[in-house]
């Protein structure tokens, strides 16, 4: 295949761009010397090298086949589940299946590429490019056809039809939107309230045990929930379960901490929100809603592990670092007649991430 | 069933062969011969950087294969079940069916854990490969006309890939994926006016609801893969239609493409590469534990783990979220959370728009409307190169910011200081990186020019009779010289000047003025290739010097290596 | 755990009911014991006068420079604590801090680091006895509280629930540790002895909150320990854990090993093979 060195082929835009220049472009310093002659590989000229490469490729393929067999063997040979076989602390099944599959594929691939590199023709061939754009003639023809089609339709001459058609089609977007309305219920005020209410006991998460102040030491952290999550109704069924439990938990989870009362600087309105240095805060970060419970008992700081917003629990949950903008909502607490910690009301503001209607 | 050809004549079936028979049968019905006769021997140029997109393509195929395997057992349901499978530490717990079935795949399906891990590794590779492929395309200017639309398709593929990855990350319903969804919920709620509705419609009610995983499953296995497949198809079709770009060099011009034929060389190389990508991800799945969902536990909105991070490709958004100061406005009883809106909604929108529009912006600045099929070396487009380096710096910083807690633990750093540092660094360091990379590229252009005009440094030190020491420079080969000069001259866009026939000064629109300034910034400092006169003069000078030495009875040591003498058996440096 | 208490009656018909009831019984017994047993103000350690005397001697040499001659604490001029008062911290705190090598600190810093213990077991006991004699505080837990040799799988599962609720936020899902503000950190939990784990929960060393026996019951603590130990002994099902730091280390490996390896292959695929000089005829 001979190489053509003249660059007479028109490339759209290039002539135009050249014509735009004030002065003709200076000549290129060096003319194209053309494609370098092909140099043969050892496998092209040396029979031994060729045979060696052939053996090499075939060996790779055979090893790959061997690995495939090993895959099948290890599939049946090694146990998983309750009696997982282990090797060096790994699951033998996963390890052997992965290694045999991996090498079966890898060796196949390496073999194929070695075949291409060593034994397939490596003479570079040249393909000419063609202008991406259609020829002027084709463009004119296409445009003419388009115009003719448009004319034949008469849409252009009959604006009433055109406009009503456009209107009708555009309106079809509406059902597509309306039909999605039932994706979910409207928010209403559900984000503004939680299940907490006056008199509801604060219980330890997981175990559901109610809490008494004298059980809680200075520096203590309790991941807590409202007692209703552990309660049952008259039929003996849980009051909250499944998705409802998850939804309510996502708002109502709290942490209870105890500090030296002298360290706490409550707002005037929050003077009686704690019990002997025991305070209760929402566990849901006001940034984007991660549960926060990284409490530093000495500094009274609470850190969110997701984006590192830091709140000072001794100072009304004020943000002292990080991307959160609002203080952590505090739950006013007191004691019931049996001496257990209870909420004195629901949260006084919506918990969790900010939203438009929050105000 | 390779048809043996010598590359010059079509494979002629001398007598009706089996292959010929099959081909005839199909062509009688499909008429494919006309369309494919040229494609079978289609030429692809050979360069390692042209295979980066292939890594993404093959990872996608691996994802399809392993993904289908996983769907055979995965149950996309948030209905609660009691886990009774083989993983001891969770047996007896209430959890969603999605999580329970993920555990089932991991512990009770042979090869299930392997497939999960291959799937996850391939997903990480898929997006990473798209990134490096895109960087290659950007650095070499391969997005220029006529390939702008393919750049846009590529950008859409990247975006969809990231969404697809996030959907997949959320499906197992473990503690980490639930935390990710919780953050997504926070992002949605920050959207002004509509936020709460978006969140309620997405989750089918209040977070977490029991709709999100079935919905994401459909998105993950049907909607986005369908779009990805269609766009990949379009991407490849355009690649075939435009033909691949190539590096400049002797015999490689804007009008041709030099390389190896599709059949058989590229079929073997690309096919082989598929097996390598699959094999590589299988080895990763065998050896490296990824997303051990059983350790995270089922999702519980009251639980969280240290090191709650998204997969790497969301790291930038995560970093932005982490370093953003806590700004929030309350206007007329409404809340605007800038601290979430800017990093979570505005920034990704702006970045992706900029990525998609870049080819058009650059071509407007440079005024370059020509077709380009030869790639630019990164040094020959210093501003573009520096821009990407700056973006990579920004990306890296935000990425690091997204893992600031892990950095703090591993390198014993102060978490807060990392955040403070990043808040300044994302504005300062990209600019520094831009300036450094730009000057670096221009310096490399200068080095190229010196090499072209004055030859290469031989390392041979000559001492003149006067005692002066100089290093011999010898001319570079013609092939190299041509390769160095096979590039365009940059033209600074000048404002139209003068007056027209009626004596009215040429109008200067404001956009033209801006463009002229930008164009000057873009090109003015670049080193242009020498003109033929300059080159000839330099050559002449070198000849002259050589001639002086040639007159001597014995040419000075080292000169025999100037490419004009037979130096068989001699070495430049004698030991 | 939710289903064990909140859903008990719902599950009564299920085969799990028997187990659940048994477990509830055990829970209540454990809880009742913890509530009814006298608060361990002092224990026999502090009453061993010889041990206390020996402990005081050791204390004066090794600890008094920071904690004061009578363990009353040392306040700096700026008003911050140089070494806190140890009155009332109890023997458990001493056993944890000294037994894990955190005390004595090598140098003042934001956080005492774990290192090889400086004192022998006997000396640690003596120090603990001395500090316990200063005021009532948590005693070193008896071995039965943290002995996990005979816990069943149900307990391990429950321990996992408590662990994820109370501990993972700082210590990470696999107990690999995590960052806290200002250069502090929650240490990794791998290789920590059950006793030290128990003492840490009981006393809340440094920034760690206290999880008193009244709220997080002894058997619940034991379950957490059992869960962590079961994680340690479980096989690494999927291969190398890469530090168990979650997606950050996974992303790093995807780039370095994954993309790195694939690009290396790409370079090899496109690299020109060696050329032969001898047969050159083109």
Shape of chain C: globular
Distance between the first and last residues' Cα of chain B = 54 Å
Measured as a percent range, the helix fraction of chain B is 55-70%
Which oligomeric state applies?
heterotrimer
Largest interface: A-B, 116 and 144 residues
The Cα radius of gyration of chain C reads 26 Å
**Class from helix and strand fractions of chain B:** mainly alpha
Low-confidence stretches of chain C: 1-13, 34-42
Separation of the first and last Cα atoms of chain C: 80 Å
- The geometry of chain B reads as globular
Strand order of the largest sheet of chain C: 1-2
- Strands of the widest sheet of chain B, in order across it, are 1-4
Number of helices of chain C: 13
- Number of DSSP E strands of chain C: 4
**DSSP summary, beta strand count of chain B:** 8
Helix/strand order of chain C = HHHHHEEHHHHHEEHHH
Strand content of chain C: under 5%
Strand content of chain B: 5-15%
- Rounded radius of gyration of chain B (Å): 30 Å
Task: Note the run of SSEs of chain B as H and E.
Answer: HHEHEEHHHHHHEHHHEEHHHHEEHHH
Contiguous uncertain segments of 5+ residues of chain B: 1-5
List the keywords:
heterotrimer, A: four-stranded antiparallel β-sheet, 8 helices, 13 strands, 33% helix, C: 282 residues, mainly alpha, 3% strand, globular
């Amino acid at each position: 295949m001979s190489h053509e060195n003249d660059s007479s082929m028109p490339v759209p835009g290039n002539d135009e761009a050249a014509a735009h220049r004030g002065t003709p472009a200076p000549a290129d310093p060096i003319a194209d010397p053309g494609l370098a002659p092909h140099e043969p590989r050892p496998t092209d000229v040396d029979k031994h090298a060729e045979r060696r490469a052939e053996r090499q490729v075939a060996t790779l393929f055979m090893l790959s086949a061997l690995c495939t067999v090993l895959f099948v063997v290890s599939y049946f040979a090694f146990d998983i589940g309750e009696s997982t076989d282990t090797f060096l602390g790994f699951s033998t099944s996963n390890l052997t299946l992965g290694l045999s599959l991996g090498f079966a594929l890898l060796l196949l691939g390496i073999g194929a590429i070695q075949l291409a590199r060593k034994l397939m023709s490596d003479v570079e061939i040249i393909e000419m490019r063609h202008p991406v754009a259609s020829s002027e003639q084709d463009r004119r023809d296409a445009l003419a056809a388009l115009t003719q089609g448009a004319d034949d339709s008469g849409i252009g001459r009959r604006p009433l039809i055109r406009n009503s058609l456009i209107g009708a089609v555009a309106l079809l977007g509406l059902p597509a939107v309306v039909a999605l309305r039932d994706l979910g219920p409207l928010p209403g005020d559900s984000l503004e309230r939680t299940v907490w209410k006056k008199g509801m006991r604060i219980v330890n998460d997981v175990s559901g045990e109610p809490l008494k102040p004298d059980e809680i030491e200075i520096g203590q952290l309790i991941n807590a929930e409202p007692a209703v999550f552990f309660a049952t109704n008259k039929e003996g069924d849980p009051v909250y379960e499944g998705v409802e439990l998850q939804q309510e938990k996502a708002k109502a989870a709290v942490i209870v901490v105890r500090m030296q009362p002298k360290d706490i600087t409550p707002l005037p309105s929050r003077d009686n929100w704690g019990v002997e240095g025991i305070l209760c805060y929402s566990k849901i970060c006001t940034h984007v809603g991660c549960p926060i419970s990284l409490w530093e008992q000495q500094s009274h700081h609470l850190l969110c592990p997701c984006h590192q917003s830091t709140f000072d629990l001794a100072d009304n949950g004020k943000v002292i670092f990080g991307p959160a903008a609002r203080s952590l909502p505090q739950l006013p607490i007191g004691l019931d007649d049996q001496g257990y910690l209870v909420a004195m009301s629901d949260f006084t503001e919506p918990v969790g991430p900010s939203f438009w209607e929050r105000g | 069933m390779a048809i043996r050809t010598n590359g010059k004549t079509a494979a002629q079936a001398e007598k009706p062969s089996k292959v010929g028979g099959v081909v005839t049968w199909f062509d009688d019905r499909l008429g494919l011969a006309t369309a494919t006769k040229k494609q079978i021997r289609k030429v692809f140029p050979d360069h390692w950087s042209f295979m980066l997109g292939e890594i993404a393509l093959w990872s996608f195929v691996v994802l399809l294969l392993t993904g289908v395997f996983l769907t055979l057992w995965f149950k996309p349901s948030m209905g609660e079940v009691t886990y009774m499978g083989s993983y001891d530490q969770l047996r007896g717990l209430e959890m969603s069916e999605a999580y329970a079935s993920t555990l089932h795949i991991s512990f009770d399906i042979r090869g299930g854990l392997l497939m999960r891990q291959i799937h996850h590794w391939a997903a990480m590779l898929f997006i990473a490969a798209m990134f490096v492929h895109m960087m290659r395309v950007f650095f070499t200017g391969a997005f220029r006309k006529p390939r702008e639309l393919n750049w846009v398709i590529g950008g859409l593929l990247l975006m969809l890939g990231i969404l697809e990855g996030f959907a997949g990350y959320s499906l197992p319903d473990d503690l980490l994926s639930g935390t990710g969804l919780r953050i997504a919920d926070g992002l949605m709620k920050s959207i002004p006016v509509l936020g709460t509705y978006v969140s309620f419609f997405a989750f089918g009610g209040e977070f977490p609801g029991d709709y999100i995983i079935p919905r994401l499953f459909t998105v993950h296995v049907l909607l986005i893969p369908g779009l990805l497949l269609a766009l990949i198809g379009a991407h490849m079709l355009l690649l075939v239609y435009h033909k691949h770009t190539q590096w400049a060099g002797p015999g490689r011009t804007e009008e041709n493409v030099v390389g190896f034929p599709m059949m058989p060389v590229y079929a073997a190389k690309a096919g082989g590469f598929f097996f390598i990508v699959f094999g590589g991800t299988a080895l990763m799945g065998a050896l490296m534990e990824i997303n051990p969902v059983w350790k995270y536990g089922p999702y519980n909105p009251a639980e969280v783990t240290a090191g709650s991070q998204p997969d790497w490709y969301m790291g930038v958004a995560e970093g932005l979220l982490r370093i953003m100061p806590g700004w929030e406005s309350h206007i007329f009883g409404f809340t605007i959370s800038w601290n979430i809106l800017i990093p979570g909604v505005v920034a990704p929108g702006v970045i992706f728009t900029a990525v998609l529009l870049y080819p058009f912006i650059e071509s407007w600045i440079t005024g370059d409307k020509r077709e380009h099929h030869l790639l630019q070396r990164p040094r020959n487009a210093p501003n573009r190169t520096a821009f990407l380096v700056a973006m990579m710096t920004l990306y890296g910083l935000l990425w690091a910011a997204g893992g600031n807690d892990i950095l703090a633990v591993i390198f014993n750093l102060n978490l807060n200081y990392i955040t403070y540092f990043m808040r300044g660094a994302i504005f300062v360091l990209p600019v520094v990186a831009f300036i450094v990379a730009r000057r670096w590229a221009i310096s490399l252009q200068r080095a190229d020019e010196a090499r072209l005009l004055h030859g290469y440094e031989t390392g041979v030190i000559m001492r003149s009779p006067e005692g002066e020491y100089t290093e011999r420079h010898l001319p570079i080969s013609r092939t190299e010289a041509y390769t160095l000069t096979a590039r365009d001259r940059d033209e600074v866009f000048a404002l139209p000047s003068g007056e027209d026939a009626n004596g009215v000064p040429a109008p200067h629109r404001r956009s033209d003025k801006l463009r002229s300034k930008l164009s000057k910034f873009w090109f003015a400092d670049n080193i242009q290739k020498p003109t033929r006169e300059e080159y000839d003069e330099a050559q002449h000078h070198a000849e002259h010097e050589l001639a002086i030495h040639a007159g001597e009875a014995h040419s000075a040591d080292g000169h025999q290596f100037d490419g004009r003498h037979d130096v068989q058996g001699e070495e430049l440096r004698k030991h | 755990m939710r289903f064990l208490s909140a859903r008990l009656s719902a599950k009564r018909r299920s085969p799990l009911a028997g187990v659940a009831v048994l477990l509830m019984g055990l829970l209540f017994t454990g809880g009742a014991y913890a509530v009814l047993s006298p608060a361990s103000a002092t224990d026999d350690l502090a009453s061993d006068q010889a041990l206390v005397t020996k402990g005081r001697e050791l204390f004066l040499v090794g600890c008094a420079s920071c904690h004061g001659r009578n363990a009353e604490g040392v306040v700096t001029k700026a008003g911050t604590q140089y070494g806190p008062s140890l009155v009332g911290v109890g023997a458990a705190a001493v056993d944890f801090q000294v037994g894990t090598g955190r005390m004595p600190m090598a140098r003042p810093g934001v956080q005492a680091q774990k290192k090889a213990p400086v004192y022998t077991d006997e000396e640690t006991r003596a120090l603990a006895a001395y500090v316990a004699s200063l005021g009532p505080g948590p005693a070193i837990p008896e071995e039965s509280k943290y002995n996990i040799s005979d816990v069943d799988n149900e307990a391990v599962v429950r321990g996992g629930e408590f662990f994820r609720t109370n501990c993972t936020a700082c210590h990470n899902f696999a107990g690999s540790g995590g960052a806290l503000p200002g250069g502090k950190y929650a240490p990794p939990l791998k290789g920590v002895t059950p006793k030290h784990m128990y003492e840490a929960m009981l006393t809340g060393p440094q920034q760690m909150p206290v999880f008193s026996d009244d709220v997080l019951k002894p058997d619940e603590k034991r379950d957490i320990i059992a869960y962590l130990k079961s994680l340690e002994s479980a096989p690494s099902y999927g291969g190398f854990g890469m530090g168990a730091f979650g997606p950050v280390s996974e992303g790093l490996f995807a780039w370095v090993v994954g993309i790195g390896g694939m690009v290396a292959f790409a370079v090899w695929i496109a690299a020109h093979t060696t050329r032969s000089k001898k047969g050159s005829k083109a």
